[in-house]
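ok trying again, last paste got cut off:
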Amino acid sequence: MKMEKAAYTLRAISHETRLCIISLLSRQEEMSVSQMVESLHCEQSLLSHHLTDMRAKGILNARKEGKSCYYSLRNKQIVQIIHCIESCNCF
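nice, full thing came through this time. structure:
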């Protein structure tokens, strides 16, 4: 069961943009979509697609404030995966 959950999580984040989102949110407690668009230099529609899917898969939390939507990491332990990837010398 543990490996099944690990595989599910790895599939859910297995895209460069998704890894960048997690890395970004590991440094900021919470960010709006427009802040992420500016930081990641990607199209808002593409980013929104990834954010919606990551939220549905339990990776992110979202809260609305006026017209803005703010995202944060649901489980901070996922940052360990990013740290592991960043410290690996195999890329």
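cool. The beta strands are 31-32, 60-65, 68-73. The chain has five helices and three strands.
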